[in-house]
Amino acid sequence: QVQLVESGGGLVQAGGSLRLSCAASGSIVSINSMGWYRRAPGKQRELVATITSGSRTNYADSVKGRFTISRDNAKNTVYLQMNSLKPEDTAVYYCNAYGITAFGLGMRDFNSWGQGTQVTISS
Q1: pLDDT tens across 15-60, in order?
Q2: What's CA 35's distance to the chain center, in Å?
Q3: How far is CA 45 from CA 41, 42, 53, 64, in A?
């Protein structure tokens, strides 16, 4: 199994910044993509940003120009730098990773989620 551990959430005022981190561990052969999703109160989970092993990024329109996703492939870690935060960014942020893991004498796909970290932006 592949485990994801997130850190960096918290409470900040509007206009402030936070940096989220997510480290993947386990019998990882390769990670194709890592990303961040969020679920605001009363809403469905939505994509925030993703990044491939080749550093191709994808952002939700609502965060473009304010959030930056990056990854350290050697550390199997993904980061989300969040600037100019708004109250509507308040949500639980979840890390996701999918790729290939060792399984027995072979390999199989994995798609793992972190436990979530709370981000609260006060107005």
Answers
A1: 999 999 999 999 999 999 999 999 999 999 999 999 999 999 999 9
A2: 4
A3: 10, 10, 23, 18
Instruction: Compute φ and ψ for 56, nearest 5 degrees.
Output: -80, 130
Cβ count near 34 (within 10 Å):
28
Nearest Cα neighbor of 95 from 116, 110, 73 is 116
CA angle 92–96–5, rounded 5-degree value: 70
Residue 67, token pair as written in the block: 């959030």
Pairing state between β 18-26 and 28-39: unpaired
Residue with token string 């072979």: 106
First-residue to last-residue Cα distance in the chain = 40
